[in-house]
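Could someone model fe (ii) ion with this protein?
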Amino acid sequence: MQMKKAVILMNLGTPSEPTPAGVRSFLKAFLSDRRVVEIPRPLWWVILNAFVLTLRPKKVAPAYEEIWSSGDFEGSPIFYYTREQAAALGKLLSAECDAGEVKGARVTFAMTYGEPGLQSTVAQLRDAGVEQFLVLPLYPQYSCTTTAPIYDQVAALFTGSRNVPDIRIVNNYHDHPLYIEALASSVREHWAQNGRSERLLMSYHGIPRSYVDKGDPYLEHCQRTSELLAEALELQPDEWAMSFQSRFGKAEWLKPYTSELLKTWGREGVSSVEVICPAFASDCLETLEEIAEENCAYFLESGGKGFSYIPCLNLRQDHINLLRAVVRENGFA
Ligand SMILES: C=CC1=C(C)c2cc3[nH]c(cc4nc(cc5[nH]c(cc1n2)c(C)c5CCC(=O)O)C(CCC(=O)O)=C4C)c(C)c3C=C
Ligand SMILES: [Fe+2]
Ligand SMILES: [Fe+2]
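Reply:
Sure, complex below.
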């Protein structure tokens, strides 16, 4: 008899509403995770409560408000895209099953922080008779700040449990040929529609430099993705660069910083750039606001003439096909 299987796509999470209260509650859950911020707890507790959670929600809520809805959807983009990616993957997998009998896995989604959480998602699936789970973090590059917390949450779910189900976690897919090809196609299509800029910048979410020094392979994964994408697009070394965005706090993060590099390029006379964000499977605050608005302004104010942002893979069919391939390679569907 075939076991009932389920795939759970996971992403970071997002506020439930674009208000200071909604942002505060999301940041509290996210920034309390020791995997994300490694500052010793008593000190971090004071900084988090006295400064971060009192000041940042008021500053960030208007930015969330700006990206909250578009012509296509209502609400937070990362929530919308993650939910729709799960629906599209589910449709693709069941369309491939024998008519009438769904032999493939059902597909749903969960967020590491905020709703829907992993615990309630797994509990619902177990109630529905699911015995085998595949957790697929939508982080192509592994990081101790994003992928590892998902391992922690899965382990915590079953601590002390007698009947631990068969549950697998995808570690990364930073060099998967279908991932690289989907990124390359999105760039080629962007060139065909908008013309080609002087340089392509691959901007990844940053992390503290010390995390990499202590063993996080994130930088290595970002470098490999970038080289493979540059190769697929037949770019010369002076036609592209890699950088890191979204620095948080005073510590040194991975360099070069996206904002600094774009300002330097503008001052040096680089006329036009396009920016792609390969570490994000879905558009979100960090791409739609930080890159397409804030960093665009930095480049143009520094002398740059043309800036364009290449959207994340979101609901592209080649992205959903890549997710199907990852699911299959893990013995599901
Ligand atoms: C210590 C701080 C942070 C680390 C480390 C970090 C790593 C990291 N984050 C993502 C993906 C996303 N981050 C997003 C938002 C966001 N990230 C941080 C801080 C760290 N991230 C903050 C404080 C925020 C909230 C916004 C803000 O206050 O500036 C998001 C967007 C969520 C949304 O609602 O749209 C994503 C996605 C990755 C991939 C990563 C390490 C590799
Ligand atoms: Fe982040
Ligand atoms: Fe940001």
